[in-house]
Amino acid sequence: MSELVVRDLQRSFGGVQAVGGVSFTLCSGDLLALIGPNGAGKSTCFNLLNGQLRPDSGSVRLDGTELVGLPPRHIWALGVGRTFQITATFASMTVAENVQMVLLSRARRLFGLWRPAAAQFREPALALLDRVGMAAQADRPCGVLAYGDVKRVELAMALASEPTVLLMDEPTAGMAPAERLALMVLTAELVRERGLAVLFTEHDMDAVFGHATRVLVLDRGRLIAEGSPDQVRADPRVQSVYLGGEA
Amino acid sequence: MKHRHPTASPLAKVLRPAALFAAMSVAVSAAALTAGPAAAQSAKEPGKFSGAPVRVGEINSYTGLPAFTIPYRQGWQLALEEINAAGGVIGCCELQVVSRDDAGKPDDAVRVAQELVTNEAVDVLAGTYFSHIGLAVADFAARNKVPFVAAEPLTDAITWSKGNRYTFRLRPSTYMQAAMLVEEAAKLPAKRWATVAPNYEYGQSAVSWFKQLLKEKRPDVEFVAEQWPVQGKLEAGPTVQALAAAKPDAIFNVTFGADLAKFVREGEGRGLFRNRKVVSLLTGEPEYLEPMKDEAPEGWIVTGYPWEQIDTPAHKAFVAAYSARFKETPKAGSIVGYITMKAVAAAITKAKSANAEPIVDALAGLTIDSPVGPVTFRASDHQATMGAYVGITTVKDGRGTMKDWRYADGANYLPPDDAARKMRPAE
Amino acid sequence: MSFLLVQALSGLATAATLFLVSSGLTIVFGVTRIVNFAHGSFYMVGAYAGWSLIERFGGTPAGFWGSVAAAALAMGVLGAAMEIGLLRRLYRSPELFQLLGTFGVVLVVQDLTAWAWGPEDLLGRRAPGLKGSIDILDQPFPLYDLVLIGLGPLVLGLLWLLFNRTRWGTLVRAATQDREMTSALGVDPARLFTGVLFLGCALAGLGGALQVPRESVTLQMDMAIVVEAFVVVVVGGMGSLTGAFLASLLIGQLQAFGILVFPQITLVLVFLFMAVVLVLRPHGLLGRPDEAPPTAPATVTVPLLAGRHAGTWALALLPVLAAAPLVAGDYALILLTEVVILALFAASLHLLIGLGGLVSFGHAAWFGLGAYGSALLVRHLDAPMPLALAGAPVLAGLGALVAGWFCVRRSGLYFAMLTLAFAQIVWSIVFQWYAVTGGDNGILGVWPPGWAAGKATYYWLTLALCGGALWLLYRAAFAPFGYALRAGRDSGLRAESVGIDVRRFQWMAFVLAGAAAGLAGGLYAFAKGSVFPTLLAVPQSVDALVMVLMGGIQTITGPLAGAVVFHLLESEVMSLTDWWRLVLGLIIVALVLVFPKGIVGFLSGIRSRT
Questions:
Q1: Testing the interface with C: which of A92, A97, A159, A166 to mutate, by most C Cβ within 10 A?
Q2: pLDDT of C198-213, one tens digit each?
Q3: Is residue A231 situated within a structural domain?
Q4: Is residue B70 located within the same domain as residue B154?
Q5: Domain span at residue B352?
Q6: Which value does ipTM take for this structure?
Q7: CATH number at residue B254
Q8: Residue among A43, A70, A76, A110 with most chain C CBs within 10 A, to mutate
Q9: Contacts by A144-153, CB closer than 8 A, 24 or more apart
């Protein structure tokens, strides 16, 4: 059982508060959605959690360990995986090699100067790719993949490090509806099977309300609602600032 | 990138090693081809020469320093034509020259020297301008046992601390030129001296010899300021100002070329030379004096080459032949190039052989008559006794020249044979 | 007191020239994101053109200033022509191509200028009416320098007006901030860029023509000024006009007072200053992070192409190479030895560029340090050759360990400039530390001992050591280490978030590349018998870059082919013609424009099409 406790996280850019006093708790088995209009501070929030940005104040604790101040790679090593809104993979490598890199990194075998990287951890990498439905494209260069496929590779890379907490920034952006559904189903399965704690942002409301166990609503840097999908859907403040006429 | 075929795996492409293999094979065969003996460079006139030609490999910084090396090249070309017109060397053989550029880099010079020796089968090496390139070729010459006549490098090391059996040097060294100037400087009443010199071996050794030799003659002088501008990047204003601030009675200058022109302009503009004597190395050479035209400094004590005023018959003949051949007046480099080639020819003729050891033996102690007078390559340290002209700069008819000059024979400014021999490494 | 004031004024006069030249460089960079190596060439040709015009028309003040203006305009036209003919095709290329393409122009212009104006220094007329000096607190100060001092701020003011009060200037500023924006504004970016090149090169030409009354015009002016202008632009913050002005002032004063305090180390002072500024303020004095140049990863994310079968091919090639002494003569063997050494040198640079996306502009420092490491061991400790050769990669690796720690903290062009600064510092130390390194006279007599003295033996030794080192580099490239390096290049963000310490890998790669280059340098020292500071100088670094580019940066075997072709070309062309710089420059430009993938990439392109 893992627990990510976020308390009063704040960050401003040049006097403009991007994230102001966000607090929440993420536990194993949670599939927690973070939603809000554009510019609400979702990506900033993610960057604060994985160490990309440093908060002005507040704390992020993983099972009691303070993460604030640690560089991203240390936070990763403690079990916090991440996927990016704008996909970031190693474009000059094949799909399988992308996953192998994570496995090599996790096994602390990156400083090897002799044995070819492509021959190490290939089987486990293929198994992970199979899990996300990318095994057939394992030997294609990552740089030529379709957008949705890259997202799936990113998920496989995130899973390769066997994280306890997974941060997914818009995991289904750019995907066709059927693909979206498949990815969310897969994510929900992973949460159940492995006891993962997942925090994700999403624009697609079907994905959010169809799969999330809980929902956080961010507006202008502040949390304005938290609860089960049904509770959030019914919250009048959420409806006014965010869901608007849709609800 | 965008057009890459989507199914091609990067690791499936194995073509690159094939391409490399091809390239390396081409390299091997190209290298093998260039290894073949090259055709003689000059057109032979059948019947004129009875013996096999003797070949000289000539290396200089033609592209790096064309302003100084092209007059030098014309000098040796004139000499070569005269030598062959007069029946070649040893009375029977054409003298051929294979000339190469060293790009101003010592490692290129060493490679070119190797190419000249192995591919062009040259019997003697000659040339070089920069001291470090001269030293590199001298080291190569010693290792490969090829005679080398260093024409222009000034460093003392080439005949003294790094001297070797196969290397001889023609031009008066830094030490010799400094000694010639010290003789004049010691006569001045000046007690407070400042120095300005480019910050590399030539400038450093010129200043240190000048200081040492002047102190020997005049224990009462003191050196109150020194400036070490980067060669080619003299910050003229600040340098001039810094020298003036030390209020010296006289200045010893070693800068040359573009730095010198800047220094003179800025110094005149800021009154640095008012009521001060300046003693200056090489400034009387036409290479440096002529570009300054009517702004050439007045009254500096310099070493140089007042070619238009030297009226010995031999020198007049040289000037006439040179001007007729190249439609321009000679520079100091011209006379050095000319004498270099004449010395090489004389050594071969004296040795009666194109082989290295006899030529080296012939060069040691060889005396030739040159346009500037007799020049001897001393057997003790392989330094030639070619001198320099010491005089006063002046402006005449809108151009810089020298007056009140005399020829300072190099023989009088060299340490005695014993002392010189001691400075050389044991053979 | 009055002395210090006049010294400061002298510094200001230096600063004015520096600012004129570097303002053009920084404007061009700001808009086009190209570091124009040929900027110094426009300065030089501007001085030559100014000299010719002033000789003819410069007798009167109107004639003089008219000549200066005409020379500046002429350089502007040439600059616009270069934009249309060359730069326009390079905007989307990696910065390595841009640097080398414009460097090719430098070589071409050098030879053309020598051909047009002759090799001799030309001392021009003084400015009419400004020949004398005036006394400032009893210290004479040249009038012309005073005019220059006024000209610096004047030009800054005019440029400010141009950029803030005209539509064209507003567009240029917009383009500086966001290149894509200009097309949205309905402006033809091509014409805007041509105009910017015109302005930038006209400023360089103006700076050059204004030197005519101060100093003689020479063929060495271009490289002398461009390196200093780089320093000014980098210190000021790339693309920042005010930054360039401030940096010019600081460097002018640094030089004016530096010669009083440290007359002996003027050579390194400026580069030390730049290194310190960059370490403390990564984007220069007034540069902003968002104006940072695009880093290599944005442009080079190509797969590393080299098959597993490279090993088989290498094994097939090795006997051919090893058998070479049976057929080749002495000189051919020496050429081959050099080619093998340079192949290792180029491959070590390729480790940084091809895998790490780190364009080093000072790689010669490690080659040279290796050579000096060997030579110093021989000279001062009388070390036998094996020990001296072992010392080469150690010294070079240690040097790279120190420099690398600073360099990998920056990326893109700032990394390139820092490596250049370190290389210049190392070069200056070697050049000036006469007692230990022999200064510019180098160290002689570094020959192999009797058992290895034969040309064939030394060739085999070189082949064995370089082959071994190349094999190690090859393995490392495909081992996790090489992959981690590429990961950092492809996406630093992702690499950090999967536990890869990108900087540390870059640092280690820097050390490994330095050590490999050092071994090459050590072998080179014994091949030549002597070492000189030229081994660590800028041209040596550029040679290595050309070799890598020639072979093709996307392939692991490319640099080897590049080294072979480049060295044979260079040695052959040099013995055939005095115009080798022209030939080499044209070849570089052609490579950049027509064969951007290099020889190996080009050949395999043909193979895969047929």
A1: A92
A2: 999 999 999 999 999 9
A3: yes
A4: yes
A5: 54-173+310-386
A6: 0.90
A7: 3.40.50.2300
A8: A110
A9: A144/B4, A144/B6, A145/A95, A147/A87, A147/A173, A147/A174, A147/A175, A148/A172, A148/A174, A148/A175, A148/A176, A148/A179, A150/A87, A150/A89, A151/A83, A151/A87, A151/A175, A151/A183, A152/A183, A153/A89, A153/A95, A153/A98, A153/A99, A153/A129
